[in-house]
Amino acid sequence: MSRGACTDGDPTVTCVCDAGYTGSTCEIVLCAADSCMSRGFCTAGDPTVTCVCDAGYTGSTCEIVLCAADSCMSRGSCTAGDPTVTCVCDAGYTGSTCEIVLCAADSCMSRGSCTAGDPTVTCVCDAGYTGSTCEIVLCAADSCMSRGSCTAGDPTVTCVCDAGYTGSTCEIGKL
């Protein structure tokens, strides 16, 4: 492998090394700007450079990204890789780092439509419901049978009945 031009001399060989090589016979490989992929410290060497990788990287040129505690957001298993880690997401999550929460059957309490998202799902509630997961029941015109005042709530509305009425929806008239 040629790393320069050498001429026999007396008493020694004289070499003019190509760019990236040094030494009396061009045997030492010099560090280039990207020798350790900007992820470690490079030392020139024979037959190649040596990289001491920064924390979080490994490999002869620091090309492998190691898994960190939060690589998959604690929502999956991680495998170190090049050029990045690979996540296998737990059920209910997706995305390259398991960052997207998938909709479950009860994400919106069967009271709205769900869209997967990061950091959580988004619910668009059906008429009569509100809240981040459609957990709050809104008052309707007849919630308290027009016999009291209504307050929206979870899991149902609350009625404060007018005088002479009782029951959860003011459905019972007093005698």
UniProtKB/TrEMBL annotation:
The keyword Repeat applies. This is EGF-like domain-containing protein. Residues 1-27, 63-99, 135-171 form the EGF-like domain. Keywords: Disulfide bond, EGF-like domain, Repeat, Signal. Disulfide bonds join 17-26, 89-98, 161-170. Pfam families: EGF_Teneurin. The keyword Transmembrane helix does not apply. GO terms for molecular function: Notch binding.
